[in-house]
Amino acid sequence: MNAPLRKAGVVILVLFGLLFINLNYVQAYKADDYRTSDYNGRVQVAEYERPRGVIEVGGQALAESKPTGDTLKYLRVYPSKQVEAWAPVVGYKPVNGAATGIERSENELLAGTSDTLFADRISDMFTGDNTGGGNVVLSLKTDAQSVAYRELVNNKRGVGKGAAVAIDPRTGAIQAMVTMPSFDPNPLTSHDKKVAQAAYTKLIKDADQPLLNRGLNETLPPGSTFKTIISAAALQNGYDVDSELPAGSVYKESGAVIRNAEDEVCPTAQVTLKEALTDSCNTAFAQLGVKLGADKVKQTAQAFGFETDDLTVGNLKDGGLPVAASHTGKIQNPDGSTDKGALAQSSIGQRDVRMTTLQGALIAATVANGGKQMRPYLVQQQLGPDRRPLYTANPQTLRTPIDGTVAGKMQEMMVSVVENGTGKNAHIDGMRVGGKTGTAQNAEGKDPHGWFVGFAFNDQGEPVSAVCVMLENVPGGHASAEAARISGLIMKAAAGRGGD
């Protein structure tokens, strides 16, 4: 065989070898990815052969499938009259593209492809039926969710963006999770691709980001709500509720100038820790943070959940909606030493401190639950197509940031905030309520954010709800007052006492 033919033969063998390797790669390693791709038309048709399971709360369907008689036999619909209240949690399942929210995290169960529904699929092979997918029951409380959405949207300060999260401190069950602005998911699941794409394009281009779950995925400076962390650090390091702290009207540290919100707030040279939290004394907490040191501040924040980047909220087995990490910031100079000016500002929840609304609710829930922080969850139950129970949430302890003694002292101080201090708007008749307000400066020329974190005990002495409400860019001063008012109504509703 001459040289040119030999070379051609080698090239052909190499090409056949590469083709063989590619075919095996596609079939052995990529087949599942291609099969389950959101853009695989045949998979889409097959997926719509059976009704997708229901997402529900309190017997009310939040997401269900309706027969169409078309090639795609079922249309995913969201029938609630207050659909925008639920959308950020429930999410949506489009024909093209990826699902979001619970529709995504519980997709295998809802679609009927979960291993837990294997027996149902085997039964279908013999009966010829297309049994529907499994069902998901959420932990949300209808009244609390409704009140949270209504009060956020109709807030008294004309704010257009915000979030609210309420948790049962004893279990971690999320009672309410609301984002403002929100969206109607129904156009996004239309079988008309042009309609669905137009709806998505409009939402994605909206500068107010209605598709963003602000409660889980937006981090903002928490202002004075972060003083709960500094208080916990102090109580764990030799301070008590009656310990005297240096205060005054102005405190200067390494170029940072700390002032109180108003001249009448702790103008004296010293205040107790309890008084400082009750009146939200910036100068006292800035000096306290510097005295404790950056390491203790960071360690306490981390113990409560700051810097955690792997938390999800869904069922307690696996998966769920991802939660953005809250951060304290580095609080250091370029040479690695502590930047005391930054530490002073961070100790009042400013500088580079950033927190999610969920994290705020977890702080309050931890204090209310005696120092034990329960892992938050949204999925209360998973049910088969025949509504047989497949899974029921079994509460899990996530971490224990503080002991019962410290938690008890923090409860005392936070109750004082509501009864005697800046959080009076959160008061609920007949319930023991504690909390902490926060007004956070942000971009220059922008109105501050208003925060409130708090908890409520019933008349049996049980912690029944913990909440965080965040309102972005609140005009008119006293930004946290409206957040406190809304928080009180949400906790009242979560406790089953109405929301008016």
Could you explain the architecture of this structure?
- It contains 17 helices and 19 strands.
- It has 500 residues and is of the alpha+beta class.
- The chain has a six-stranded mixed beta sheet.
- β5 and β6 form a beta hairpin.
- α10 crosses α12 and α11 (273-279) packs across α16.
- The termini are far apart.
- The model has no long low-confidence stretch (mean pLDDT 92).
Shape: globular
The total strand number stands at 19
- How much is the radius of gyration in Å? 27 Å
Q: In terms of per-residue confidence, which ranges show pLDDT below 50 for 5 or more consecutive residues?
A: none
* Helix proportion: 25-40%
Largest beta sheet: strand ordering: 3-2-1-4-14-15
Gap between N and C termini, in Å? 94 Å
The count of helical stretches stands at 17
Average per-residue pLDDT, rounded, comes to: 92
Strand content: 15-25%
Structural class determined from secondary elements: alpha+beta
Largest sheet: 6 strands, mixed
